[in-house]
Amino acid sequence: MDSRKLNMNSQTAVGDRIKFAKVAWVVGLMLLVGGLISPLNAESPSHPEGSPDLLSIRIVPENVTIRGAYGTQRFLVLGTFADRMERDLTAACRLTIADSKLAAIGERGLARPLSDGATQLKAEFEGHAATSEIKIIDSEKQRPFNFQRDIGGILTEKGCNGSYCHGGVKGKGGFKLSLNALYSHEDYKWIVNGGTFQVLSPEPAGELNPRINLEQPDQSLLLLKPTFTIPHGGGELISLDDSEYQTLLKWIRDGGRYTDEAENHVEVVGIEVFPKEVVLDLEGTRQILVTASLSNGEREDYTNQVHYKAINGDVAKVTDEGQVKAVAPGETTLVIRAAGHQTTATVGVISEPITDYPEFPRANFIDDLVFAKLRRFHILPSELSSDGEFLRRVCLDVAGRLPPTHRVKEFLADPDPDKREKLIEVLLESPEYAEYWTWRLADVTRVALYASGYSNKGAQYYWEWVRDSIDRNKPYDQIAKERIAAQGQGMRNASYHFAAADNFVALPLPETMMGEQMRVFTGRRFECAQCHNHPFEPWSQNQFWGLTAYFGQLAGVRVEHGEDFKGILVDTPGGGYGDRGQGGPIIHPRTKEHVAPSFLDGTPLSATRGIDPRMELAERIVAHPFFAEAAVNRTWSYFFGKGLVNPVDDFRTTNPPTHPDLLQALAADFRESGYDLKHLIRSIVQSRTYQLSNRPNASNLADETNYSRSVVRPLDAEVLLDAVSDVVDIPEVFTRVSMGSSTLPAGTRAIQLKTSDAVGSLFMDVYGRPDRQSIPDREGKANVTQAMHMLAGVTYTEKLAGAGGRVDRLLNRWAGDHEIIEELSLAALTRYPTEEELITLGELVHRRSSSLRHANFGRVESRKRAFEDMIWGLISSREFAYNH
Amino acid sequence: MRLREYFFAIFILLCAVASTAQSLFPPCVQRGATLTAEIKGYDGAYAVLFDCDSLTGEVVESEIEVEEDGKSVTKKQYSLKVDAAGETVPGAHAFRLVSPAGVSKLLWLQVSEEPTILQGTTPNNTPRDAQHVGFQIVVQGKLSDASSGVIDYYSFDVEEGRELLFEAGSGDGGFDPTLTLYEQSGSWFDEERLKRLAYGDETNVLRSTTPQLTYRFAKPGRYFVAVAAFVGVAPADAPYLLRITSTEDVTDSSEEDWFTLTSPHAANTEWDERNFDRVLDTERIQQIWTRTADAPKKMVIQAGGAAANSQGDAQPQTEEAAVDVEPSTTIDALSLASEVEPNQTHEEALEISIPVLIEGRIGFPADIDVFRFKVEAEQALAFEIETPETIPPNFNPRINVFDGEGGELMSNVFKHVENTIMINSLQAKTIYTFKTAGEYYLHVRDVTSREGDERFAYRILVRPQIPHVGRIEVMEDHFNLNPGGVSKLTANIAQEEGFGGDLAVTFENLPPGVQVLSAAEVDPDTGVPFEMIDKERFVPKGQKVNMIFLASEDAPGTPLPRMVRMEVRPISANKPGPPFLVKEFPIMVLRPENKDLAMQQLQTIATSDESSLE
Hints:
The complex is a heterodimer of chains A (about 900) and B (about 625). With about 900 residues, chain A is of the alpha+beta class. Chain A has 30 helices and 26 strands. In chain A, the strands form nine sheets. A four-stranded mixed β-sheet of chain A has the order 2-10-9-6, with no helix packed on it. In chain A, strand 9 (about 115-125) and strand 10 (about 130-135) form a beta hairpin. Chain A starts with a helix and ends with a strand. The model of chain A is unreliable at about 1-15, about 25-50 and about 575-585 (pLDDT under 50). Chain B is mainly β and about 625 residues long. Chain B folds into three domains: about 5-255, Jelly Rolls (Sandwich); about 285-465, Jelly Rolls, CATH 2.60.120.380; about 470-610, Immunoglobulins (Immunoglobulin-like, Sandwich), CATH 2.60.40. Chain B contains three helices and 44 strands. Chain B has a seven-stranded mixed β-sheet with strand order 23-21-24-26-35-28-33, with no helix packed on it. In chain B, strand 6 and strand 7 form a beta hairpin. Chain B is flat and about 85 Å long. Strand 23 (about 555-560) of chain A pairs parallel with strand 32 (about 420-425) of chain B.
């Protein structure tokens, strides 16, 4: 063939394809964001004109005891309005104390004790009134000093021990503090003795310059720095008049002693925030109340003793005193830190309140909890998805592939009201389900040639374990136990992950294995605690190495017979990891002491389980609440594009779930089902939440958090490639390029690849195929390379031009243009084309076909090329490449 | 027609030309039936030697017309016709071909209980084109192009509840087959697709190139089994055997290892000291003595009961039994002990006296069997382990010896470095010299804490160390010498338990004109120094002996192979021990007239056989 002709045709093809792409883009836009221009549906309430009516007011707390000379209590006056909003009226209302000799009240609701006794706080606003009972005890008695609460409290409130300041890994400016005063004994040592923190040694480095000066207390670094008397990177945090300054100065003058809570017999056991969930309109503000629970059962107002931070300041801001102000519609987390404790609250800012919020049908408990939050946040869920939308979505999510065209026609025409439920059951029992979820689980468990020490047998046997687990719908706790505590050898044994190469070259370090297992099965990232206490979470280095020690006896043993041998993974009492010649039992990197296995809560390894420590660890993990939460969260993310906690393996106090009650309910249901993955998947896809349309309404347009509409998600690389192959009906040909070169059997799908990293595929690489060298994080973000690949990549060019595909078949039986357009639309988009699309695409195909005929192509060839271009337009569209 | 002169039976016919790849297809014959298989790579073959009397055959030469450069050319084709008598043991059998190029290496022929069929001539590379077969059958197929993703499909019908065993092997086909079982249930997405039921790529033995797959079919219907090459690696037209049998019909345990059955004749000279499946019985010590320079000893066996534990639960009933060996002096008594539960702790330990042959079972996961024994200071013992029922990698016995305070003295885990990687390997034998007299505890368990059941049987022989000649490994298994030519044989000799004597090597039945020149060299110690390595406890010192076979210029041809016996006599303190057989192998001196002479010889023998029959 003339190469110039080929090039010319290619250019023409690209130009025409762009036209098709534009059509597809328009079509996709209409489908995906049609709701942008559509009005609210008929069920949407009308917005009340003018200010809403105030219905009632209340004071929080309604009953309180103030203790000690310096005890205070912040009160909050909340008004309930006709638009279902609760607003903070504290600053606007009139506050009075019934007996003014007992207590005084400030204008922002801060009460101070004057004398012991009982009285009442009264709030009045626009004819509404509310009261709160106040009891005052020990008004002349000072609370005993406590280093963590008093000194650590100041350091926490002022943010000194935050992770970006002295609470960071190595501290700041040579001064190290524990995050939130979590390890107050160590803080005391650094303050009183001085010295610089070292990662690999418990000994301080540098000169030991104490940060307090007992001879000249006001010359202590601990005071000179935060008052900016001498240069301080953190600037001026307190002034000489502040009570915090006086507290610090007094402590130093009194000798700088460490007095702990044990000596006072009263500890802070936790802090609570009110409200846990704040809903503000665009003008809204709200005071946050924080209360400490004490070990003696008493409660104490901590509102002024904590540090506040809004994670997303574009949604809401918070003052140092805990007053939240709306900025823009959205949702953010408010992190509240006290000495040794932290908690969070959720702040939602709505654009417009919905007074008459309608009821929506609910399929199961998922809807109860999702819709309840939507109601609180004044967001209306989108309508139920169309049958076509649902069919495409559920097929991709449950079986990883598009429905065939005859099934689409069948489903769309089926009048059975239960057809969705029936389809779900069919999909859950399909061989495609087994293949797809094997691929999903193989991602998490990192089945790959590289991860198995480049052992083909090892990797493939490991894959077989995953496959068998899915085939048998093995309880997820059993899967976890088999993976965490893998021993032995063989095809149906997860140990191949660790001992794949038979010579154990792939055996990772114990701390690596521990970190990965905890990340997958508890959703927590402990790795940061490897070299130091976790900078953001209360995970200590001791906990990290205690967990690691469960893997310290892991060893590989080889059995031989002549030239043949096989690796067996075992736990060797008293030896273990040292058998590989890389050291003996687990040694703490800082203390250099042997570490015994101990679980998160410090529970040591049972004496009777010495020969099988990892099984005990596995049993403890699956029995821990973290386990089910992590499992349901990860599974949820497969259907909604993100977890209730996101990233799915980054559960943190400072990264709370968007729907904590839903997370708990899903976890409880998962536990009760016997950790049945299929049951969990069924619950999710049966929910109306899952089956909502992606078309937004006016109230949920900005919502990206609350599942008020279906989340549009890019297809994963493997699923996308299979989908392209299905639409053109030409199977992809896969070739192994690593550890052997051979072509995989005809018809092999991308999600069926056992060791995807051994198979060359530019397409999958461009679209984000992970190599599984670490736990995959499939973000699926679009990039320029993908755009280039769409224009010139082999998948989008050669595959379309391949012989024997869908277009060939249709042309060979002389199908009309409209029939072909309809068939291609059903295959790619799971829907019939609209009238407009039929006309527009028909014209485009006709024009393109005619121009090709003028270029001396035959009639059949011209039509074929025109339809290839149309397919290109379809598979290049967002509507095709995304699940929605 | 039978030639007693040779170890193998020999049958002869024609001769011929050069060859390319060496193969035999089909490679399986049902016992009681006849097979005609095409030979490639042994052009001119005129005789075949089998490893047992129940297999007989002949090489048949024929002519075929082939197209070459557009012309019709006549070429010779060779095939092997085999008659398998009804009593032939099923399994893999060895044979050799004789051609003008000499005697071949050992080749393998599979004998089946089941009828054999050939793969059809039409492609069966998709489920739709699957070849329908029954079960109780052996399919002989060729994977045409595995590297291009080609898979062979076979369909079969079964009734509800039937359990079938599927096995595949490639013999010398040079690939690793896999088996996948499917049902034809279709799916909502694709009514014709197969649903995968099971995958097989493992056997019960360490070798993983003969996959076994057992499946019980819950419902009746049509099913499929697919034969593929692991990761698509196989030469073109790679031959394979697929055996489908009902597990109810597999009654003989040897049937379970159909592909791994060792040829009885090939194995008879193998001395095994380092594998868990060698037999440890009451004759083991006598067998070892025969490999020393000392005269045979007499040993008394104390047999008949379990060993006593410290709580007196088990009462051994000791009695003496004669040993069928040539006696000279009595040196010791071998006691027999059977494990009795509970014996998990030192308090429950069963008492044993050395030398002892212990029998026991790791009856449940994490089961540990503990035995107590006494030794003298500097007593040197050998610990040998056998797994008579379930072998590694399924049962992997680990033994440890502890002192009374719980300190571990030794185990059968050999730590060593291979290619800079630290390896722990589980050994079937270890030796240890106790520094201090006293009471010690032998622990036996599976190396995992998860495995164990009634099939996890073990035998442990604890005995004094006996310096002896261990395994003698000779890689070469046949020699074809041209007149005036030489060929080298290397024997690697294991010097077990401190054997430091010499060896005298002799060869019997050499062809006329062939002599042996020998030279010995010490095997250099190439181990990597590593403080954890206690190499001598697990690896015997080695000796390498090189021997040169020299055929003189005027050496007469050897029309048919001569079986040469290689024997060794251990020599210690200038005293020779008894000779023992190391290996038998065929040797030929190649002369152009060999074939004709062979034909004459065989004709003569055939005539005399016929005369004797008359």
